[in-house]
């Protein structure tokens, strides 16, 4: 049972609701009774909390645990296309998680302590709603500090995000710009300190999922062990990673489309290892192996492949190695190579017509490979 359950009214568009100085908790235990502490319900047609304010409240974690928030808003998109809750300020509170479901524009969450077993902030705004601002909060929630599934514009600025218990989120990350309901619009992640302590599940510090136009700058990313702290996924487009970010043991994984690294940003130095698979245009190698690594910057894929042919067997016609990322459709590209033993040159043809692979021959167009030879290919091609 929720402790305080409020239903929105059409009059709240004019006479706003303000909650101040409210304590919902158990001062003799770590958890309180009940489920959500406060529910704002705008599922009925016309239900509104316009210009809602909440400040100086203490909303303790429920003993029921995950899924029960300090502040929970639920709206019916069919009944209230404005999101029901809008032009809202939530500030200077202690809250065991905020959940915004089909909520509206201009929600400002600032100067709060956000903790407990849920997300610090979960936001799945109504279609076309934006101006979500999360600023100057101190967050140590278990599931994630922030998860956003829909917002057309957003800002996450000047927060302290710290993982102090094992992360229980689906993507094991402190800040998840997930966009699972709809691709997030442009937003700014700036001035934040994001870190974890040991034995908390080795979470990623920030994951850029389905987002177009995210800007990351002037943040401090610190992981407790050397691992990926910033993950720009293949679902991200036009991400801008600024030179003002600092990394402390954290590295960056970039698979995004058109990711731009500002001059001086360290992400460009990161290469990812992969193991190419070797085949021949005809016949087969008795014994052959390869190692590889690549770096993706936007559509550019820089790749190196080191091939060792121990026993050539019946292999003939061409040497084929798999690529880390599919090449652009209907485009002919070449990755040059060199035989280590004598400097003979090779070239690998890259085209989508041949799949995700490079097909190599010697400079004169013949196979030209014998047992015991090592050939190294290094070059750049355009990704799909």
Could you please describe the fold and organization of this structure?
By secondary structure, this protein is mostly beta strands. The protein has 2 domains: 4-270; 273-382, Immunoglobulin-like, CATH 2.60.40. Helices cover 0% and strands 48% of the residues. It contains no helices and 38 strands. It has strands spanning 4-7, 18-20, 23-24, 38-42, 49-50, 53-55, 58-59, 71-75, 85-86, 88-91, 94-95, 98-101, 107-110, 113-114, 119-124, 132-135, 138-139, 144-150, 154-157, 160-163, 173-177, 187-190, 193-196, 204-208, 214-217, 220-232, 240-241, 246-254, 260-261, 272-274, 278-282, 287-297, 300-311, 316-322, 333-339, 345-350, 357-362, 373-382. It has a 17-stranded parallel sheet that branches. A 10-stranded parallel sheet has the order 2-6-10-13-16-19-22-25-27-29, with no helix packed on it. The protein has a 9-stranded antiparallel sheet with strand order 30-32-33-38-35-36-37-34-31, with no helix packed on it. β36 and β37 (357-362) form a beta hairpin. The radius of gyration is 26 Å and the shape is elongated. The model has no long low-confidence stretch (mean pLDDT 93).
């Amino acid at each position: 049972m929720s402790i305080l359950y409020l239903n929105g009214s059409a009059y709240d568009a004019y006479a706003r609701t303000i909650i101040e100085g409210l304590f919902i908790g158990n001062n003799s235990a770590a958890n309180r009774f009940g489920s959500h502490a406060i529910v704002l319900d705008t599922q009925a047609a016309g239900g509104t909390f316009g210009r809602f304010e909440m400040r100086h409240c203490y909303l303790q974690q429920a003993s029921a645990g995950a899924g029960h928030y300090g502040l929970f808003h639920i709206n019916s998109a069919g009944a209230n296309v404005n999101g029901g809750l809008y032009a809202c300020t939530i500030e200077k509170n202690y809250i065991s998680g905020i959940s915004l479901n089909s909520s509206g524009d201009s929600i400002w969450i600032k100067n709060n302590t956000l903790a407990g077993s849920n997300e610090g902030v979960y936001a799945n705004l109504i279609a076309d709603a934006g101006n979500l601002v999360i600023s100057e909060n101190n967050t140590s929630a278990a599931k994630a500090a922030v998860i956003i599934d829909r917002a057309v514009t957003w800002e996450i600025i000047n927060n302290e995000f710290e993982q102090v218990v094992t992360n229980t989120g689906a993507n094991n990350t402190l800040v998840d710009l997930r966009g699972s309901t709809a691709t997030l619009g442009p937003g700014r992640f700036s001035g934040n300190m994001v870190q974890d302590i040991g034995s908390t599940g080795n979470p990623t510090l920030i994951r850029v999922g389905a987002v177009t136009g995210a800007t990351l700058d002037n943040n401090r990313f610190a992981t407790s062990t050397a691992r990926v702290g910033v993950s720009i996924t293949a679902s991200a487009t036009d991400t801008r990673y600024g030179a003002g970010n600092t990394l402390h043991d954290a590295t960056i994984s970039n698979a995004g489309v058109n990711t731009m690294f500002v001059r001086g940003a360290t992400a460009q130095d990161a290469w990812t290892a992969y193991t190419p698979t070797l085949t021949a245009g005809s016949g087969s190698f008795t014994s052959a192996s390869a190692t590889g690594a690549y770096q993706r910057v936007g559509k550019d894929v820089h790749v190196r492949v080191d091939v060792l042919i121990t026993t050539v067997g019946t292999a003939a016609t061409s040497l084929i190695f798999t690529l880390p990322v599919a090449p652009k459709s209907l485009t002919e590209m070449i990755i040059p190579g060199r035989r280590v033993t004598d400097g003979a040159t090779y070239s690998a043809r890259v085209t989508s017509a041949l799949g995700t692979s490079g097909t190599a021959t010697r400079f004169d167009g013949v196979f030209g490979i014998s047992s015991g030879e090592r050939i190294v290919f290094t070059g750049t091609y355009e990704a799909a």
